[in-house]
Predict the structure.
Amino acid sequence: MKRGPPSTGAAVQRREGLAKLTGRERYVDDLPLEDFLWGMTVRSPPPSPRGSITAIRFGRDVDWSQFVVVDHRDLPGPNVVYLIEQDQPVLAAGVVRHVHEPVLLLAHPDRDALRRAVHAVEVVVEPEAPVLDFRLPSRSDEIQYGPDNVLKHLRIEKGDVARALAQAPVVVEGEYETGAQEHVYLETQGMIAALEGEVLVIRGSMQCPYYVLNALKHALARDETRLRVIQTPTGGGFGGKEEFPSHLALHAALLALKAGRAVKMIYDRGEDMAATTKRHPARVRHRTGLTRDGRLLAQDIEVLLDGGAYVTLSPVVLSRGLIHAAGPYFCENVRIDGRAVFTNAVPFGAFRGFGAPQTLFACERHMDVIARTLGMDPALLRRVNLIRDGQSTATGQVINDGSDRVAVLERALDVSGWREKRRAHAAFNAARAPVRRGLGLATFYHGGGFTGGGEVYLKSRLQVAGLPDGRIEVRSANIEMGQGTLTVFTQIAADRLGLAPDAVVIAEADTARVPNSGPTVASRTTMVVGRLVERACDDLRRRLGLSESARGDSVRAALRDWHRAHPDQSLVGEVVYEKPPGINWDDATYRGDAYGAFAWAAYVAEVEVDLRTCAVRVTDFVAVQDIGKVINEILARGQVQGGVVQGIGWALMEECKWQDGAMVNNQLTNYIIPTSDDVPPIRVAFLETPYPHGAQGAKGLGELPIDGPAPAILNAIAEATGADPRTIPLTPERLMTIAEFGMRNAE
Amino acid sequence: MSVLLPGSRREALELLARSNGAAMPIAGGTDLLVHWPQRQEEHDRAYLDLSGIAELRPVEWTPDALVLGGLTTYWDVIRDARVGRELPLLAVAARQVGSIQIQTRGTWAGNIVNGSPAADGVPVLMAYDAVVVLESVAGREEVPLERFYEGYKQMRRRPDQLVVAIRIPRRPYTFQRFVKIGSRRAQAIAKVGLAVTHSAAGGGGWRVVAASVAPTIRRCPSIERLLEEQAAVHSPEELLPAIARDVTPIDDIRSTAEYRKLAMARVLFYDVFRGREQGAGSTDHGRRMTDNG
Ligand SMILES: Cc1cc2nc3c(=O)[nH]c(=O)nc-3n(C[C@H](O)[C@H](O)[C@H](O)COP(=O)(O)OP(=O)(O)OC[C@H]3O[C@@H](n4cnc5c(N)ncnc54)[C@H](O)[C@@H]3O)c2cc1C
């Protein structure tokens, strides 16, 4: 439970930090490129989200002979972007299912000429009845997927919910809604495609080079030996560069193949926000049975996600959402039923948290609704119900990780001054000034790695090569996007072999050079892939004939000796993922160990609400979590603080305004994210209960911090005002409509 | 695109006259260039770059007025300590424009001529009875800012005229308040802006200026009358009829008509009608919507 010393004895600097700080880092748009064409996309226009394309008209003012034009007929292979289900076309072929669907690709050497040309193409759509509200059942003429527009239905059951609810002394119900969220990575989507001899080379901003490779292989009907995908330094992803870059890579590739020249596509912010994925909007209903002193007897939870116009990753987002929906509590009887439904909206996709933030918002807001109903301190309600070692989750996973979840909660209460502040706020609010203060709490958890059997299915491979000069090279497909992969992998490998950080080289994520260690998603990089780094280091040591305890000088010397004895040969330690013993998952019944490990957290938000304007300001924030092991404290704190800021935005201001299933406030002027002035001091504390199968004992951290802020903030607003807000983003406009509260008696 | 680079005010006015009003003046460019990549049609225009005209820059204090130049920036005003003492709302509003980068480039004249109903500079100027000084080769013309706007982005400026100065009378004030309700604490466009002043001096009285609640920034005569008459107002709701007479807020991408009305009523009630007794001598002249307490 105590903080260990820094792993390598000295703080390791972010490896690419200086390059980023000095502006020398080269993102895809900065790469030197000669004799290339710009590529752009012609998309289906509003106002028809659904319909047939009846005409494509090319304006007369443009000399089209100077443009490369690609449509769906130019695809060498099947017209699908390879993912869970093969339903999404690379380019629309006759029909469209959402506004901004890509229809044509254009390329030209001059970017301004290209912009004008894109505007000069008219795509005519004969409209059909769209589905635009995921909460309403579809009429028969609106069905576009399966028999009922349901993309995925999942259910988790434990115990007998119906009976437990019928017998419960107290039943509390609630309905909660969360909105879409835009990733707002600083670097917009960008990709370069070029033929180098026979090999089609893709360079770009992405989280998953092998997803891109697979998508190219499939739709271009091109074998892997003639494909190469290289990740370029990536300016933020947050899930937005998980599945989407496959689309852009295909688009750039099609243009480059047709043009016979390199093609570069860089979205501007407007296109990026309008046409790429967002966080799934959700509605969650809770019916909870309790004893009068607040013990959970039954949780009946119904989850509904807006999937948008194609399946994308909705089934797995739903799955993670459901598994987290009951919160970090023990309850004998749980039923979680969830559906992701089709709508004619621009498809939703991966976003940090992947379904869990939506369901945990509902769960944690609902806990405070319960506390208010019972007249109970929300902290006490949580302490009573937090899962203890030996107890099982909704999927029947027995938690036995030694982590003290009550201690995590107590620490958050202590650091935030929970008890004293609540007293002080009550006194302050009693004065009935137009400003009110409140504290709110959320306790939550996040599972690291792919869900269920996902990691086994991925079969991740990773190499650590021993170089002749005594250095080592880590070869993985996991990428740096600001979260610190390069630095953390350096630390893990250096620690394992007792080498200095600068003796560790991290290979560029280039599919021609690195094995498929899986995607950079799901909080898996440090915990799961970091463990592969350790094991590959061990394998390298074995190949050198060294004992398990060999470190530092002996490793360096052995590397040099080996290369002297084997000139011009390569020495590579290599491992494949192995399922930790005792972890079992049954996908058919949705029971078992959903994740190798959960990280646990308790967050406290303090707010001031101005009753004049209904503006909410977060004035203090405390984030306490047990993440197994802190490998790099600065980076870990950065993940937490960044997640909290993103959570503040999602809770209070980030609102996608929809028209015809497309975002219309697709500029940073009108899609409001927090500025540094909107962010309170964020006080971060870590507890460490090592996870034996994670690198150095680490659990996943990347997504955890986006799960807690929104419910903590809304709980604080409820406490401050007496209102009962249940929908985010809770903009001042929305709060004003539910906030008849107190204004009349504000003195 | 062509850019004209006059070195003096005179030369600028001549170039403008010669272009038959087709040349577009550009000062800080912070409004004009925002949509540059998207609005291709604007690339073909002639631009008259004012930035080299040093004589348009200085802030001048005369015995009875503060005179801002046609190129005076927000930052120029923030740096002038006398503004903070005498006409503090100018500095308060200037600090809430965009970010420091924008404050050092953006000009007061640009804010006026851009004609946005959500501007932050215009309301405080109007609450101080500012006069817009226009000049062309044909001569000078002075228009009180409160009569400058004729409709959404419509104003009493001919294309051959430049704003060469903004004159603000010097008066003692007993009440001064600027409130910007934005969607966050910085880098926000006002959803409601309010500038309110009271001066007991001759020609003074109450000025209540509202932004983002009508096609133009405008004074609110009904609210002003309630203040002049010292009418008893007991709740924000009692102000709604007067607000409905003075402004016409709408639902748009940034907010709702309902919110704008209620927020305006509440801020006026708590900060102006309640606050007027404490107004004299108060040094707290303004706040952002999220500056609570
Ligand atoms: C990121 C960002 C944030 C912003 N935030 C705010 C904010 O918070 N509040 C706010 O009010 N505004 C804001 N703005 C808008 C803008 O900065 C201001 O309106 C600024 O005052 C415009 O001045 P400028 O000198 O840059 O005008 P320019 O863009 O140069 O010109 C604007 C218009 O005025 C005309 N013009 C300029 N000078 C003269 C002159 N002397 N005579 C005649 N016509 C002239 C131009 O022809 C043009 O039509 C923001 C802009 C940006 C980009």
DSSP finds 19 helices and 28 strands in chain A. The CA atoms of residues 601 and 625 of chain A lie 4 Å apart. The interface with chain B takes residues 112, 115-116, 119, 268, 270, 433-435, 608-617, 653, 657, 664-665, 669-670, 672, 674-678, 731-733, 736-737, 743-744, 746 of chain A (CB under 8 Å). Confidence is low (pLDDT under 50) at residues 1-9, 741-747 of chain A.
